Amino acid sequence: MGIVSQEAILELQALMDSVDESLSRTFQNVNQGFRAETLARFLKARDGNVAKAHKMLVDCLHWRVQNNIDEILAKPIVPTELYRAVRDSQLIGMSGYSREGLPVFAIGVGLSTLDKASVHYYVQSHIQINEYRDRVILPSASKKHGRPITTCIKVLDMTGLKLSALSQIKLMTIISTIDDLNYPEKTNTYYVVNTPYIFSACWKVVKPLLQERTRKKIQVLPGCGRDELLKIMDIESLPHFCRKEGSGSSRHSENRSCYSLDHPFHQQLYNYIKQQSLTTEPSRPIKQGSFHVDLPEPAAEGTEIARTLESELQKIDKGNGLSKSISGIKIDDD
């Protein structure tokens, strides 16, 4: 379990044994029976400090209770056309598994526009994928392999990354902060592929600001990353944008379905959520409207990274007004 000692895990476990019933109940949804591994994740996120890890975990559980996160998998985004619009603009999908059994998530960073719905829908969608991963996919993988599988792999495609795409930096910071505070250490490795110049310029200034444990997880691969990724997964699990050198990740690629609502992963996820909603409230019609979650303030590190990125982008863009669009993200009520 890395830098985390068994003694620290036992100490944190003793502290968690005293939390009230509501926190204990949501903690079961967090750990899915892998209590020690979950405690280790929060300890890693706080460099092994038991007191800080305890505060982080308790804060996470309070966030879950206050925002009804345990119920979010029973709250579908409807109508289907709206969810399809979210999927077409928030490009994420699961392409398969590594040879070690870790789920492989593909994320189209460069081509995600995040402009077809309010912030709350994108946050809801992101948390639902997190919860489905943690409550359905990872327990199933653990059962199949007969050992705890509690993390995933993410392949980040930078194809199409432009200055205008980074105008959504505030939303990306919100989502990143939610993950940092409430889903720590869930990603084993981030593989970054198809990197244009703008990524290289931003990475140069952001990399020194990241914590060492985060930097160690990020691998920037040459080209589409095919050869390196085939060392850890079969070709069937490669995201479509890694299949051919130089192919990029065209939005019209025949393999793009990894992101699409029509892909089996998203079909299973969406059907699961609809079924959960019918099981939870069988007599009530499904209502349109996003599942509002308290949007966190970014930590000091996140704020510094966002500020540094904005400064670097201003240099690249030679002051054409991009910084105004970065700070002007719209958060609608619906």
TrEMBL record:
SMART domains: CRAL_TRIO_N (SM01100), SEC14 (SM00516). InterPro entries: CRAL-TRIO_dom, CRAL-TRIO_dom_sf, CRAL/TRIO_N_dom, CRAL/TRIO_N_dom_sf. Signal peptide: none annotated. Gene3D superfamilies: CRAL-TRIO lipid binding domain. Pfam families: CRAL_TRIO (PF00650), CRAL_TRIO_N (PF03765). Residues 79-239 form the CRAL-TRIO domain. PANTHER family: CRAL-TRIO DOMAIN-CONTAINING PROTEIN, SEC14P-LIKE PHOSPHATIDYLINOSITOL TRANSFER FAMILY PROTEIN. This is CRAL-TRIO domain-containing protein. It comes from Hibiscus trionum.
